[in-house]
What does this fold into?
Amino acid sequence: MSSLLSIGKSGLLAAQVGLSTTGNNITNANTAGYNRQVAIQGDTGTQYQGFGYVGTGTEIQAVRRYYDNFLATSLRSAEANQASLDAYSGQISQIDNLLADPTAGLSPALQDFFSGVQDATANPASAAARQSLLSNAQSLASRFQDMSAKLTEISAGVNSTITSSVNEINSYATQIAAINNTIAGLTTDQAAPNDLLDKRDQMLTELNKLVKINVTPGDNNMLNVQFGTGQPLVVGNQPFQLATASSPTDVSRVTIGYQSSNGNFSALPDSVFTGGQMGGLMEFRNGALDKAQNALGQVAASLATAFNAQHVLGQDQNGDLGTNFFNPIQAYVGTSTRNSPASTAEVTAVVTDGSALTASDYSVDYDGTNYNVTRKSDGKVTAVTGSPQEIDGVTYTFSGTPQAKDNFLVRPTYNAATSLSVAITDTTKIALAAPIATSAATANAGNAKITAGSVDKNYLTAGNALTAPSTLTFDKASGTLSGFPAGQDVTVTVNGTPTVYPAGTPVLYTDGASISFGGVNFAISGTPVDKDTFTVGPNTSGVGDSRNGALLAGLQTKNVMNNGTATFQTSYAQMVNFVGTKAREAQISSTSADASVKQATAAQQSVSGVNLDEEAANLLRYQQAYQASGKVMQVASQLFDTLLSIGN
It folds into this structure.
């Protein structure tokens, strides 16, 4: 009878464990990270009774946690990608909304500015038109500054999010290391603490949403966690702490690295942070944000340099040559904090040619002998051969005594939109007139005519500016012109082919040919007769002249950016299109990522998730088993009572 009672008891205990396990599944059906558990039963063996072997009951061999590492890893990968795209999409949408705004964007301000230039050109003597031009210029500069400030705010928000994310990553790493240690202490050859395993997996899931991780098994049921190209976060029960610090060459930029126990900071490249929120933020900051800020600055710097270059070739209402209309654009130069303390090297950079300007950043390095400038967008290296030296539209000046491995970060356009400002406040200083005037003598007998003329940058060279009129006389016998300023070579261009005549020599006349000397350019066409004269001299009555204003207005539609391939408007439109395309790509990819997560979740839950209908069936099954085992024990008790009564 005792064996029957023992068998019933074992069944009763097994059913009780089954009920507890099923009840635990039901109550944790909505617990994040919970994996369903099942009580695994087995028989307790048999005993030989002479006629054969008789069973001795049942036992719970294990409470199994239904977990598939492949499905869990696939889900983590999908969630890391989803978190990355969500972070990227959320950030880039801010830039997209900023740049595409038809009223607050840059396009209306550019249009208003050049409309002001055109109005002033049409009415060069009008003080009101000139004042309107200055007001529109101030509004344009303010629009650049406002847009740049908003991009800077977005950048500051990214820095803040990166810092808080690093703190969360460190917290999860510490908790995972601690729970690794606890699990290792509680794990036996027969069993593992299922609830702690679930808790650890949930921590891994949350950590993975911050930065994509790689999980590998360690000793004694512990897990090791790495990210990027194998950078450790957790090794067994030892966490590794990340830290943030300002970039050594840009205090406005947060970098991530390891903080050693002695306080030293070892920076990690941004490229190791892939996937998860951190990966999305890094991709956004190093891609769309930097490109938008640089491209906006490129438009501002190109506008300032191109407008200034033409404005200084004009003449203001006081009869003076023009000055800079906009203040010069100083490139950002960041001196690395890692440079040798013995170094006294300084690098300055000024944007001087907007047409050659790129939207790239540059690294300036001293190799112990020479400076080298590396364009970061494509890795092109330019050796510095002198100071100052112009590279990609930026003039570099080097001073002081450098030391080997000195490094400087140069960002020609990053802060250009912020620093754009109008240099002129006096309307009479707006140089709408041309500094030269030409004329053909009224007594000329021929029909030759001379163009109004213009000047180029060579006119600004010392000694080239005209101080008195030069009278050019045609000699029919030799077919030449004479009377050009002493000491000036003369260049005659016919069908694109230039011919240089040394100073003081007669110049062969060619109908319609372009003639230039000392930065002065004009053309004479028609048939002159002997002794016909033409005058080229300084403009002494330029108040109503607007020839330079017309050239300034023409900059709106002139291809002055990207080596003469884009206008200000088209360059800005390209930037808006780039950001809009990236924003749309992120939205589409984010939708796809959501579907992937949904699919991966369904696959993982099919194995590890709690099915309440199934658990309800298990409750009935274990209830019946419990009742049946109790009946066995009741029968054993009755049989035992019967035996006792026989004895009496």
